[in-house]
Amino acid sequence: MKHRLRDAIFLSYGLFLAASFGAAFFLTPTLTYHYLHAVSDAAEYQEYLAGQTVAIQNVCYMLLGIFFLLSLFPLLVFHFQFYRPLDRIIRAAATYTDGDPSTNLPLIYNRDDELGYLCASLNYLTSSVNASGEYQRKFISNISHDFRSPLTSIKGYVEAMLDGTIPPEMQERYLGIVLSETERLNKLTEGLLLLNTFDDQGVYLNMADFDLVPVVDNIIASFEGTCQKKNLTIETQYSHPSVLVHGDMGKIQQVFYNLLDNAIKFSYPDSAIRLTVTEKQRKIFVAVKDHGEGISKENLPKIWDRFYKTDASRGRDKKGTGLGLSIVKEIIRAHHQNINVVSTEGVGTEFIFTLSKGESS
């Protein structure tokens, strides 16, 4: 490692000391001697001044020694307070870039100066890079799992039909399973593509005013068969018969679909899901509340992560992709609105989000 800064400081300090020694040993005594002789031409003073020349030189040497000791203080301050911490930061950064991502820089983290801020910034940068790398590894693992499961099912059923293991009279049933798995793969792919557009900030929102009430009613109607299987009811409460909102209707439909699908999936049988739409301060507030399994406190912050599922084995929710809530949050964020969740384990979960009010409302 090249120490150009240190070498430049030491070179400057060496030149400064050389000039100081030269002035103390040669220039100052000589100038002083010639000056005193010039102003004192009397013969009786010449012998006296000649005897004092050595004393003048000794004073110069003494002052030079004191000056030299004092000059060491800023040099030591520079070395211990600036150069050495900076060198340690550089070495740690070099170690990190050479392939040791576990390197951290806690050297002068608590210093309230420029070096402290630099070290804190580098620590934050390394932790962000480490978190990003961990997220990418988890992302690849999750997406591999969610693609492998349906592909394995499709491959197995098709091979069984081809080799005659599944008789022709039963093939229609298993073709239905293959179609269902194919739709699951298609849904997963579409979700990933949608999230990718949000990541690139290239999503286009077709903003317009529309009535939220018929949109929600149509989505609820599409879940009628699913609700009957669990004997669930979806109760709605609107602040007005017509609620105009401003947004992308297709994307808002997806928000309601994902939230209701989640609520139905995790609700207890024979319970009710409540959907309320209210207006406050030129905002439309929407709440979707279920009575079901709920989410634990430690898992609550993770529900917005892509591919996250509350079941660690990822086996209970076979049909879910783990992308629904991530998509919901990105859509709401793209509309410059907010979404929050309140949940109690074993009691239920409530999602609350806002929408912009339509101009004609």
Please give a structural write-up.
This protein is of the alpha+beta class and 361 residues long. The protein folds into 3 domains: 4-103, no CATH class; 133-199, Orthogonal Bundle (Helix Hairpins); 207-357, Heat Shock Protein 90 (2-Layer Sandwich), CATH 3.30.565. The chain is 60% helix and 13% strand. The protein is built from 8 helices and 7 strands, in the order ααααβααββαββαββ. It has helices spanning 4-39, 43-97, 114-162, 171-199, 212-222, 224-230, 249-266, 324-334; strands at 207-211, 233-238, 244-248, 272-280, 283-289, 339-344, 348-357. Strands 1, 2, 3, 4, 5, 6 and 7 form a 7-stranded mixed β-sheet that branches. α1 (4-39) runs antiparallel to α2 and α7 packs antiparallel against α8. It starts with a helix and ends with a strand. The relative contact order is 0.07. Mean pLDDT is 77; it is low at 312-316.
Shape: elongated
What is the total tally of β strands?
7
The total tally of domains equals: 3
Helix content: 55-70%
Structural class: alpha+beta
- Total helical segments: 8
The end-to-end span amounts to 68 Å
The CATH architecture designation of the largest domain is 2-Layer Sandwich
Portion in beta strands: 5-15%
For the record, what CATH class of the largest domain applies?
A: Alpha Beta
User: In CATH, what is the homologous superfamily of the largest domain?
Assistant: Histidine kinase-like ATPase, C-terminal domain
Note the main sheet.
7 strands, mixed
CATH fold topology of the largest domain: Heat Shock Protein 90
Order of helices and strands: HHHHEHHEEHEEHEE
Low-confidence parts lasting 5 or more residues at pLDDT below 50? 312-316
Radius of gyration: 39 Å
Overall average pLDDT: 77
